[in-house]
Design a protein that fits this description.
This protein is α/β, with parallel strands linked by helices. It has helices spanning 45-52, 74-78, 96-106, 112-122, 138-150, 168-183, 195-201, 219-226, 231-239, and strands spanning 2-11, 19-29, 34-38, 60-65, 68-69, 81-84, 156-160, 187-192, 204-209, 212-217. The longest helix is centred in the C-terminal third of the chain and has 16 residues, at 168-183. The protein is globular.
């Protein structure tokens, strides 16, 4: 469903030498799979997701989404995916019903109003259909953001730190929603730096360090290859080898 091959992206900076954010990254995600993209802040996770979402162009490499070349046909790729950034980005004066209906119309959904209501109810936000988003809890805002992303029934869901800023119950609810979307057949990339959350929902994971793939596989693969007993220790071994005791 997703193929990333030798993708590279660098940014010019005022100080002179460009900063390499993603440096020859490659990975494949199968249909219906939850793939965890792990890495410290600045490892290149968000840049990778933005390239997959066709929001920025890689300097080189290739990206396929559902068989569509995302570089040659970005609109075709966008029709197959939804990108959920870490920031909610919800207009505080608009209600969940209004926002999700608007995004449905933008995505070309026929008769988006009833579909918006049904999606919000399915995600547990039905009680707050007409509440201004500025008055919602952080956890409820994440539900609205997910409903907004899912309104056009995408095949691929790109989630960037989906539990950021949530309390324990809010994180649990969002992770249950993620797993439910995978069960429904969607392919999901989950970017996070919270190891215990990743262990709960992913089928496979890739650990990125300095824009490169430092380790990849199932949790069992990662632990076996690193000789560690926990994902925390394996992550430090792969992403921060200099910090190991």
């Amino acid at each position: 469903m997703i193929e990333v091959r030798d993708v590279r992206k660098q940014y010019a900076v005022a100080s002179g030498k460009p900063v390499v954010a993603v440096d020859g990254l490659s990975f494949v995600v199968q249909p219906g799979e939850v793939y965890g993209l792990l890495g410290a802040n600045g490892a290149g996770k968000t840049t990778t997701l933005k390239m997959l979402a066709t929001l920025i162009q890689p300097d080189s490499g290739s990206i396929l989404v559902g068989g569509v070349d995302a570089l040659k046909d970005p609109l075709g790729a966008r029709a197959r995916l939804a990108y959920v950034p870490a920031e909610a980005g919800l207009p505080p004066q608009l209600s969940p019903r209004e926002i999700v209906r608007l995004f449905g119309a933008i995505q070309g959904v026929s008769d988006p109003a009833p579909r918006a209501v049904a999606m919000l109810e399915r995600l547990g936000a039905g009680t707050y259909l007409d509440t201004p988003c500025g008055d919602l809890s952080t956890g409820m805002k994440r539900r609205v953001v997910l409903a907004r992303a899912l309104i056009h029934d995408p095949q691929v869901l790109l989630l960037d730190e989906p539990t950021d800023g949530l309390d324990v119950l809010g994180r649990r609810d969002v992770l249950e929603l993620v797993r439910a979307q995978a069960v429904a057949g969607r392919t999901i990339i989950l970017s996070s730096h919270i190891m215990n959350e990743v262990e709960r929902v992913v089928d496979r994971l890739g650990i990125v360090a300095k824009g490169r793939m430092a380790g990849e596989g199932t949790l069992e693969d990662i632990l076996r290859d690193t000789g560690k007993s926990t994902l925390d220790d394996a992550f430090v071994h792969l992403a921060h080898p200099g910090l190991e005791p």
